[in-house]
Each structure stands twice: as C-alpha cells, then as structure tokens.
Amino acid sequence: MLMWYVISTRKLIQTSSVRPDTGKDGATLLTQLINSNLFDIASDLLRKLPKLAITDDNDGRNVVSVLAKKPSAFPSGRRNELWQQYKSIHLGIEIRKTKSEMHALEVLEIVSTQVSQMEVKQLKEAGIFQAVLDATKFGIVEFVYKLMTYNRHMENCKDKDGKSTFLYAIMYRQEKVFNLIQDMRNKKTPFSYIGKEDGNNTLHQAALLNSFSRIERISGVHLQMQRELHWFQEVEKLVPPKFKDELNHQGDLVATLTESLIGLKLAFDPEGEQFHAVHPSTDPTKKAYLNWDLRYKIIERIARGMLYLREDSFEAKLFIMTSKPEMYFIGWGDECQNCRLQTGEALWS
Predict the structure, then answer these.
(1) Nearest-CA neighbor of 328 among 263, 265, 232?
(2) What is the DSSP string of 213-257?
(3) Which of 11, 35, 151, 315 has its CA 20 to 30 A from that of 203?
(4) CA dist., res. 159 & res. 193, Å (int)
(5) Alpha helices in 49-98 (DSSP H)
(6) What's the chain's average pLDDT?
C-alpha cells in the first residue's frame, strides 16, 4: 500500500490533474484513502496539497463530505464509549487516542483550515453545510466543533428544508452535539422551527423517533422510553411555550405524537416491587383528550416490548415496539392484529 501511494503521489504531482483547482485524480486518491481508513497517508498527502481537501473527486465527493460520514474514525464514535468514560471518570484511567484517531484529527485540522476562509455560497456549493449536518447526524462532535469554530458562517448551516445543525442534533438525539451547540448559541433566545412541508415544530421533531437516532440503538424498551421522555423534556425547556399547543399539517398535537412514540410511561410503586403503566401527562385537559385511563400491570418483559395485565380483569395485552414509532403489534389471546395508537387510544383494525 505504501509503495502504491508513493508511486501514485509522484505521478499525480507531475501532472496538471493534481492542481488544487482541478485535481480530481488527487481528490479521488484522497477519498479512497479515507474510505480505507488510511488517515496517516491521507494526512501526509494533504500536508503537501492542502487545497485538495475541498476539491471534488471523480464521483463528485470531497474529503469533507466523506469524513463527515466516518464516525468510527474519531474518539466520539467508539463503540465502548460509555465504558471508556467510566474508566476515565471513576477509575482515573487516562484514555489515549489511537494512532488512527490522531491522524484522522490531523486530516480534520487541515480540512478546517481550508474551510475557514470560505463564504456562504462557497460552503453550500462545496457541500460543507451538508457535511456538517451529516456529521451531526452521526454524532461526530469533533467534526462539528472544528468547522463551527473555524468558520463563522457555520451558524447559518441549514438543509434545503431550513433544518439547522441544532435541529439535527435534536432529531437524531445526538446529545454531545446538542450540548456543544447549546454552549455556543445565545441561550436567552428561544429556539424555534416550523417545517414548511409537514408543519412540525421543534417539539414535534423531538417527539418523533427517527430510526437512525442514538436512543433507538439503546437496548431495552424501559430504558429507551425513559431516555425519550428525558430528551423531550430537555428540548421543551428551549422552545416557546406556545409550541406545545400547535398542530402540524396532519393536525397532530405534540402531546399526541409523544403518546404515539412512547406508548406508556412506566412508574415504580413506592416499594419499587411492581410496575404500572401510567399516563405521562398530568394536565387534565390533555389526559381527557388522549383518553387513556386504563392501567395495566407489567407481568413480563419481552424483546422490545412489554406484556401487560389489566388491573380490573384477566385481560392481557402484548405491546411490541417496532421500528416505526406510530405502529405497534398487539396480541389479544391467540390473535395478533395490527393496531395504530392514535390520541393515546388503541384503535383495533
């Protein structure tokens, strides 16, 4: 691989195709190196020809757009991240970056320097805005921090629908990016967004579980429900109060979407020995609107779901959460029917 790189680099430097403004061959070599996790070689080439960082390759990609979709290249993308944090905080063990991570950060530093002088039009045309949004989606906090620090225009980073980096962090439950942007933005100003296509405001987006979200990958329905509720409550603190009572274009209240997403909030009894499915809303008006007064004991946990027994009868219901937040499969006896939870009430098909 090293010999191939040396030969390729010498050949490229001798040709006009590697010039920073038109070097598609050089850019293609770079994106291939990054896709192959050869960050040390990519870093070496970028130090020689730094403007290749923002040059499109033969497939219309550049280093920035490719790097934004490589969460595993950075410390924030480690699979055992929680264990690493525990060792660092509780055991006092210093967590060192791997050589590959250090080289990836070197590539990011060169990329950020090249992006630093670009204006809004250039950032859009080069796909830098989209790259930052992609990095937010993947939770690459190092990438988002560097580019937002190096270029002041990144605060205007939005997709074609007007969704900002902060909203992406909310949608995809990327708490590290969320906290980063919270520290960088003016906290005195409420965060507001209303989608042109669907009419969803910020709270609607927080209530909709995206299958790509970080919380979706948490095992255990009980824990997942708790994290979803906590996330929603954190976002609720940032937005204007009126958002809670606004309808989207489908006529859904935020409370309705929250119920459809989470299904039931679980609570322990005082002794902590039993679970009960309880209504998450304490607002009497919303509770009446959602029409969810039946309570069930949890008698058994199953994969991605719960088995409930109604308190005043021997009826049992099986709730299994699927990848689509609005759909649940409910088994009744030996039957299994599709059921859609609407306004908090099970409507049998």
Answers:
(1) 263
(2) STGGGSS-HHHHHHHHHHHHHHHHTTS-GGGGG---TT---HHHH
(3) 151
(4) 13
(5) 63-67, 81-90
(6) 68
